[in-house]
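Q: I have two molecules that I believe assemble together. Could you output structure tokens for the complex as a whole instead of separate predictions?
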Amino acid sequence: GQQLNQSPQSMFIQEGEDVSMNCTSSSIFNTWLWYKQEPGEGPVLLIALYKAGELTSNGRLTAQFGITRKDSFLNISASIPSDVGIYFCAGHSSGNTPLVFGKGTRLSVIA
Amino acid sequence: DSGVTQTPKHLITATGQRVTLRCSPRSGDLSVYWYQQSLDQGLQFLIQYYNGEERAKGNILERFSAQQFPDLHSELNLSSLELGDSALYFCASSRTTPSYEQYFGPGTRLTVT
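A: Yes, here they are, computed for all two components at once.
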């Protein structure tokens, strides 16, 4: 089946640093989404991308839909302690097929 | 708070038993999705219901079943439980189908001993 590869698996960064993570697939997706999950909670939708090449921001977060439709990137600028969590990418191909999730990037921020 | 509620929050049971997990979607959402999250497999889609009807099925085991009721709440039934069924089970909801913007509940942590 379809798989999404997220990298890196985990990151330890200093507060104030910028963060980049990405998600790649061997298949084409028509929609890319980024979710964040904090301990004991369900994933929360951060950004949705619907068009190849699209660049969308949500506060300090910026995500891009790769032009090949096989990848997406998430950047976090000026990280703060509350950015800690697991960031998941998810892709949707077509019709009523379900979302496919990556295995997540675990972000730790050192104050 | 996403507006999606799930009960119970934690469940501990023995192998061979049967449990029922419950989900109430956000007000106005017609679609409910169930996911299983384990440490090594990430989020795996199980099944989707839309307005009471099954719409999509993922890698859901035959021992698992679900339904969506007229008031739109959904239940996931897990039977003949095995140790490997220990995981977090999430419910998500969306306004329409297909919808990629899904809102997740807080999850039910199932531990099978």
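A: One point stands out. Residues 9 and 105 of chain A are 5 Å apart (CA to CA).
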